[in-house]
Amino acid sequence: MIKVLVAGFDGSMGNKTTNMVIENDKFELAGVFSPFAGKDNLREYTEFQDQNVPVYKTYEEVAAQKNDFDVWVDFTVPSAVYQNVKFAIENKISPVVGTTGLTDEQLVELKALAKENEVGGLIAPNFGISAVLLMQFAKKAAEFMPDVEIIELHHDNKLDAPSGTAVQTAKMISEVRTAHHQGNPNEKETMLGARGADFEGMKIHSVRLPGYVAHEQVIFGSLGESLTIRQDSFDRSSFMTGVALAVEKIGNYNELLVGLENLL
Ligand SMILES: NC(=O)C1=CN([C@@H]2O[C@H](COP(=O)(O)OP(=O)(O)OC[C@H]3O[C@@H](n4cnc5c(N)ncnc54)[C@H](OP(=O)(O)O)[C@@H]3O)[C@@H](O)[C@H]2O)C=CC1
Ligand SMILES: O=C(O)C1=N[C@H](C(=O)O)C[C@H](O)C1
């Protein structure tokens, strides 16, 4: 059995993940983690009355029981994810991280730490197969159509913008695209932000509205034609297959990987 701790268990993704772990015969829910939890055991929560699982609130509590955990699944917040992943690696608990917001510098540091500790881990901006495919297709398209704008659309509880998926899409496109300005070089924004965020000349636009979950559209323009690639996550269940795959496989690695495609 793979022993799993879910950090952010009380959030939208953390709740879905907690239920997925409980229902998966290959996994044991060995703990949940949030500094803000008001209870000491998961069975005190109405939804989990049959689950005798400790609620951990501090790193010290987790460290004292670190042999109880194989995998740390993180669906928390951008402001906490770096410290959470650093702690997990230092305690030889494999991080499987959905939380977005890690900087490039933090990623480099965490990769080195994982190598030093010979701990496998995964940072996945998106666990949905439709999003993983969208990023791959977008990179291919950019080889031939280098003028591109990204529109990501999310629920209006999301803390960060642009989305981690949109940033990862732009990074993958930039591997095959020469950085260049798009639009009139003399263009002026008469309203600040009108042209969106800029990534090596590509523009990224973030929509936040009730009714949305997670969606991304990549639009390519060229002489006399356009190509649009779109993915939609209508429900957070779309991420669970990828999370389960990562939890199951991450023990086979001894380095920190970025992107679910590394495990497919
Ligand atoms: N990679 C992927 O496929 C996906 C990634 N995400 C990402 O996952 C993250 C979470 O998304 P979502 O579930 O919608 O967000 P929510 O706000 O619904 O949940 C976040 C949870 O984390 C808790 N939390 C805050 N700080 C800490 C901490 N230091 N340690 C542990 N838990 C903490 C929050 O508690 P409290 O409310 O008390 O602050 C909350 O319960 C976001 O970064 C999002 O971008 C989301 C979906 C898919
Ligand atoms: O906050 C979300 O919901 C999501 N966040 C991730 C991101 O920022 O890319 C993944 C997915 O889009 C859902």
Automatic annotation (TrEMBL):
Pathway info: Amino-acid biosynthesis; L-lysine biosynthesis via DAP pathway; (S)-tetrahydrodipicolinate from L-aspartate: step 4/4
GO terms (BP aspect): diaminopimelate biosynthetic process; lysine biosynthetic process via diaminopimelate
Binding annotation for NAD(+): G8, F9, D10, G11, S12, M13, G98, T99, T100, A124, P125, N126, F127
Substrates-to-products reaction catalysed: (S)-2,3,4,5-tetrahydrodipicolinate + NAD(+) + H2O = (2S,4S)-4-hydroxy-2,3,4,5-tetrahydrodipicolinate + NADH + H(+); (S)-2,3,4,5-tetrahydrodipicolinate + NADP(+) + H2O = (2S,4S)-4-hydroxy-2,3,4,5-tetrahydrodipicolinate + NADPH + H(+)
Active site: H154 (proton donor/acceptor), K158 (proton donor)
Positions contributing to (S)-2,3,4,5-tetrahydrodipicolinate binding: H155, G164, T165
Domain Dihydrodipicolinate reductase C-terminal intervals: 131-264
Keyword Cytoplasm attributed: yes
PROSITE patterns (UniProt xref): DAPB (PS01298)
Span of domain Dihydrodipicolinate reductase N-terminal: 2-127
Pfam families: DapB_C, DapB_N
Top-level division of the source organism's lineage: Bacteria
EC top class named in words: oxidoreductase
SUPFAM superfamilies per UniProt: Glyceraldehyde-3-phosphate dehydrogenase-like, C-terminal domain, NAD(P)-binding Rossmann-fold domains
The keyword Hydrolase belongs to this UniProt entry's keyword annotation: no
Keywords: Amino-acid biosynthesis, Cytoplasm, Diaminopimelate biosynthesis, Lysine biosynthesis, NAD, NADP, Oxidoreductase
Entry EC number(s): 1.17.1.8
A GO molecular function held by the record: 4-hydroxy-tetrahydrodipicolinate reductase
GO CC annotation terms, alphabetical: cytosol
Entry-linked HAMAP family: DapB
Function: Catalyzes the conversion of 4-hydroxy-tetrahydrodipicolinate (HTPA) to tetrahydrodipicolinate.
Annotated family: Belongs to the DapB family.
Assembly mode: Homotetramer.
Record's protein name: 4-hydroxy-tetrahydrodipicolinate reductase
Species this protein is from: Ligilactobacillus hayakitensis DSM 18933 = JCM 14209
Gene behind this protein: dapB
